[in-house]
Design goal:
Elements (H helix, E strand, L loop, with lengths): L18 H31 L8 H31 L5 H20 L7
Helix pairs in contact: 1-2, 1-3
Subcellular location: Membrane
Membrane topology: Multi-pass membrane protein
Protein name: Transmembrane protein 170A
Length: 120
């Protein structure tokens, strides 16, 4: 991995060239977008179930899953995307890493909110 001079240009326009850079950026976007979505879901769950004897603890499980899922499947899928980019010799713009990372959160949310899974 080569070190880059961060003062030479805007960090949003400097392409990611190594596997580690690509994987790490995609993974971080997937992790933080998943945590963001699960915190919102946990807040809604807590507001709805705050009077319930045991239901008020379910938001903790939702937030824990929001961290564990990207730490397991997010690592693997981010590595797969970074491997394809690196093996093909493409440089990844940081904006694409954002799209790939947030996409790893948006697709499961879309599948969970629709009835696609019930048709399988």
């Amino acid at each position: 991995m080569t070190l880059r001079n961060m003062n030479s240009g805007n960090a949003f326009y400097m392409p990611l060239t190594s596997f580690a850079e690509m994987w790490y950026q995609i993974f971080l976007w997937a992790l933080f977008s998943s945590i963001f979505v699960h915190i919102i879901a946990g807040a809604i769950c807590f507001a709805t179930l705050r009077q319930h004897k045991y239901g008020k603890f379910f938001p903790l499980l939702i937030i824990i899953m929001g961290v564990l899922l990207p730490l397991t499947s997010g690592v693997v899928s981010s590595a797969a995307v970074a491997f394809v980019y690196r093996a093909s010799g493409y440089q990844m713009p940081p904006l694409y890493a954002l799209f790939w990372g947030i996409g790893q959160t948006v697709v499961p949310v879309a599948v969970g909110c629709t009835r696609i899974l019930a048709t399988l």
